[in-house]
Structures are given as structure tokens and as C-alpha cells.
Amino acid sequence: MDTLATATIAALLILVASMLSVELALSAAIIEIVLGVIAGNFLHLQSTAWIDFLAGFAGILLTFLAGAEVDPGVLRSKWREAIGIGGISFVLPFVAAGLFAHFVAGWNVRQAEIAGVALSTTSLAVVYAVLVETGLTRTDIGKIIMAATFVTDLCTVLALSALFITPNPFLILFVVASIGCIVAMVVLERWFFARYGNRVIEPEIKGAFFALFLLMWTAEIAHGQAALPAFLLGLAVAPAFQRNPEQHKRFRVVAFSFLTPFFFLKGGMNVNLLALAGALPLLAGFFAVKVGAKFAGVLPVSLRFVRPHAMYTTLLMSTGLTFGTISSVYGLNAGIIDRAQFSVLITVVILSAIVPTFFAQRFFSPPTHALSGEEEIVVEDEEFALRRA
Q1: Omega before 366 cis (within 30°)?
Q2: pLDDT tens digit string along 332-341?
Q3: If you write DSSP's letter for every residue of 39-98 in order, what string do you get?
Q4: CATH code of the domain containing 380
Q5: Does residue 293 contact residue 93 with C-beta atoms inside 8 Å?
Q6: Domain span at residue 221?
Q7: Buried (b) or exposed (e) across 332-352, using 16+ Cβ within 10 A?
Q8: What is the pLDDT of residues 54-109, one digit of tens each?
Q9: Sequence-distant (≥ 6) Cβ neighbours of residue 85 within 8 angstroms
């Protein structure tokens, strides 16, 4: 299939996903993933170099925008909630998935470590997309969930680095470039906006894109990951977006109208349904272990810190995509896991992006206004009934 045919089919799928998102009141990200599975397995749509590039950049851009949504004040004032929810969200699934992979699936220790890392994640991309579409990024619960997601994925990146990545001389360049980008954007932000802001040519967006490309390039040659510094960069410039809300809105338009659909579409295209035909019990087992461990750890902590939105928080913290995909691909490219094991892991990661998000949005999505006393009682009664069931 030539380039224009591929682009035309992808554009149609992205348009259909947007329309279905409105009609079904579901996140466009979920529908884009599902359509990606259909396109890859039944329409024989294959990823290309340009799709890979756009999807890779979109993942980093989503991570950057997610960092920009975290209110530093909320992060400081709600650090107990963020660390409590985000920390347990990493630890229990990492241990549970690793033990299941080694003792039940029969994978060796290195393969089990990859499984533990890949299934311990919470998807910044999915969580951010859902919170933006539902308007919850402006609420305290949305900001707490974003902060907790950051803690989980920070632990994931550190675990992947500690267990597998071999330091090389370019790692210093990557660290220097990361620190330099963050410092430069914080120091120069006010001057840059005053001199070049509010123009149709959007120098602000171009400057941020340059910084993200620099992070991706130096991360690649250092065999590292640009997601963590991209998130920290977004966190550092969050005050600038708060002072310039119109610029933030335009940034979102560029990201969500063109770039991020390729990230989610390609995620679905990675699933090979034929390769999974003989691995359904293993697939179901890994999925149950990941989601079960998330619920066992996150729900009790959420009931303490974010009642009456504990179930919604737990479901969103059970999602996975960005770092789960990164970890699985790393394991495959490094020869640690084979393609069959990769197919199982990547499918569990994608299912965890779809299933918990569907139930969170359909049954537990909080209102964008503060709950009244009566509404809090109703939500708590529903969560209690679900736990009893």
C-alpha cells in the first residue's frame, strides 16, 4: 500500500473515531485504539516510517502536555495523595506481574522483569486525553490523578533504567540537554512570549517542538527515554500556560487534531490477533493480574485520600499504554522477550487502556463541579455496593 493510500485510510479512521467519540460519549483515544486493531488485522494497514515517527513524537508531546496540566501548587499540597496512590500503583503490579510471568507463565527472570515493568504502568497519554475531553483537568481530582500518574510512571522509568539500560558516554549529553531545555524554557519564557507571542505563525509552539525533538534525539543516541524529561519540561512551563490560556488551547488543538490520533491508532495496529489465538489463557491471566493488583493497591488508598472518587481514580490508574508499550518494545528489540511474548504483553497493555477507561467514563466519571453533600452520599453508596458485589 503506497503512502497516500495509507494516509487516506488513516485519516478516515481518525475522522470516524472523532464522530463515534461524540455519538458514544467515549474518549476518542479508546476508539482510535480499537479502530487501529481492526485496521491492522482486517484492513491490512501496516505502520510506516512516517507513522512511526508521528506516533513517537505524539507520545512525547502528550507526556509534555500532561506535565503542563499538573498544578505545582496541587503537587506540593497533595504530595501525600500523589505518592500514596502513585507509589502503590507501581509496586504491587510490578511484583505481581513479575511473579506471575516467572512462576505461572514460565518466563525467565529477565523476561519476568520486562513483564513487571510493562504492566506496572499507568498511561499518561490515556489519562491526560480522558481528563482533557471530560474537562476534569481543571478540577482537584483531575490534578491529583495526573500527579499520581506521574509518580507511577517515574517509578516505571527508573525501574526500566536500573534493570536494563547500560550507561554510555551519550547519557551525559542526554542529561545535560534535558536540564538545559528545562532551564532555558523557564528563564526565557517571559521574554519569548512578550517578544514573539500571539502571532499566527506560533513561535511558542515551534520552540516547544524544538525542545522535544532535542530531547528525543539525545535520548535515542543515549539509549534512554525522553518521556521523563518531557514530563518535567511540561511541569516546569505549567505556570506559563496558566498565564497564557489561549496559547495552551492552541497547543492542544495542534496535538489532538493531528498528532495524537496516530499514537493511539498505531497502538492498536500493534496487536496481532492471530498470534494471540493460542495464548488467550495467558492473556487473560496477565490482564487479571495487572488490574487486580492495581485495585488491591490503589482502591484502599484512594478511599482514604480522594473519596468519593476512589473507583474512578482506581480505574484510570489501571490504564496502560505509553510506558507499557515502550517497555515491551525495548524487551523485544533487546532480545529479552520473543515476538509471541511481546504480542501477549502489548495486547494486555492495550486492553488495559480500553477496558478500565470505558468503565471509568461510563459509570464513574465525576462531574466537573464540586459535589454536593447529597451527590457525595450517592457516589459513596454506589462504590460500597460495587465492593460488596
Answers
A1: no
A2: 877 898 878 8
A3: HHHHS-----HHHHHHHHHHHHHHHHHHHHHS-HHHHHHTHHHHHHHHHHHHHHHHHHHH
A4: 1.20.1530.20
A5: yes
A6: 50-388
A7: beeebbeeebbbbbbbbbbbb
A8: 988 988 888 788 778 776 777 777 788 889 999 999 999 999 999 999 999 999 99
A9: 144, 148, 151, 298, 301, 302, 305, 306, 313, 317
